[in-house]
Sequence to fold (452 residues):
Amino acid sequence: MDLDTREWQRRDASHHLHPFTDHQQLRDKGARIITRGEGVYLIDSEGRRILDGMAGLWCVNMGYGREELIAAAERQMRELPYYNLFFQTAHPPAIELAGLLAEVTPPGFNQVFFTGSGSECNDTVLRMVRHYWACQGKPERQVIISRRNAYHGSTVAGASLGGMRGMHEQGSLPIPGIVHIDQPYHFGEGQGMSPHEFGVARARQLEQKLLELGPDKVAAFIGEPIQGAGGVIIPPESYWPEVQRICDHYGILLIADEVICGFGRTGSWFGCDTFGIRPDFMCLAKGITSGYVPLGAVMVSDRVAGVIERGGEFAHGFTYSGHPVSCAVAIANIRLMQKESIVKRVHDRIAPYLQRRWAELSALPIVGETRGKGMVAALEIVQDKHSKTRFPATAHAGLTCREFCFDNGLVMRAVGDTMIISPPLVITETEVDNLVDLARRSLELTAERLLV
Ligand code: PXG
Fold:
């Protein structure tokens, strides 16, 4: 179908409910219609090229239009478009991918449970953690500790594990047995402490919460190595080692939600490698297939898998757990990453370049801080650079900047007044220059509009 923009928008408004969207606002404005992708660029229904600074939703790591991934999907669809992994059955793509994941994940991860998404990974992990403790004769270990402003998905367990107040308010969440501590967000909540002190202080909240609940009631701690959707919250260096120490000391399981950080985003294969975390579970999705088809995978450590394997039937699974087409694309995606040494390229070349260029934006009068790691970065829009005072909420500084970005041909996300990027890992130096120039122009326009 080849319709003009207005007709697409009319049809969209007639029948389509969007995720995380105020439909009144959307209907007034009309949706942006994206029709194609090429490399790091999107093309919209007006034929405009837009640099995708978010890699879709943090997932199109290898860029749009990769023939290897397209061919793998087509081949698998012809061979076996669907079969399940229930009832003592398996298929070649799931078996091959499980082995490949064991190869690329850190030592001690040799078992994988497939799902269809990041949210399903976190639902799986919640059930598996409690099942693990029940198998160990400790069914009273139920509570999972998470963090405010974490994002772990939109299913009931995912949204409950997440720490988004707006999500909890809709639908009586969180479900019982999930509690939240504060996030390691130094710019927003540092209270005059040094990053080091603040990192330790925020990690120690885990210990305080454990002691308050009784350590024998606590099953696990869950965290994103870097919080993505919460605004690219990069914890101080002191944070994760202290969290790890506490988890080890009290014997609670550590779940790393690597849905965004996994597959090269932070400059190593996994966020755990970057931060030296030794988790019991890793939740993977998004970059596992570069977003071409849906897939999630829960990596289960040897210590946990040994118990689960001896624990009888784990009554859990999805129709699309390890869908053959998704697994075939994931295999092709990981092989392509290996062939192009993409993680090394990110680490040695393109991430340092991106971070150097991004940091230049900190000189702008409305930028209070820039930060980044690997191929994610953020900046804080402020009214007063020296006191780091924010604009009043009514100014909608972040959304204003986001609109200027779109108009200038750049996708950059706003989380409140924090602007964030997570471009495809295959972005070139010239494209990074283009991204930073477009971001600068949009920030200047935002300043002109707001600093009157
Ligand atoms: N964990 C993390 C860390 C995520 O970022 C999920 C789990 C859930 O994955 P699924 O595949 O169920 O969506 C995510 C997803 C945003 C945004 O606005 C971020 C996500 C999803 C939608 C929007 O930044 N992350």
User: Anything to note?
Assistant: The two ends are 46 Å apart (CA to CA). The chain has two domains: 32-65+341-450, 68-339. Residues 57, 117-119, 122, 151-153, 158, 224, 228-229, 257, 259-260, 285 surround PXG (CB under 6 Å).
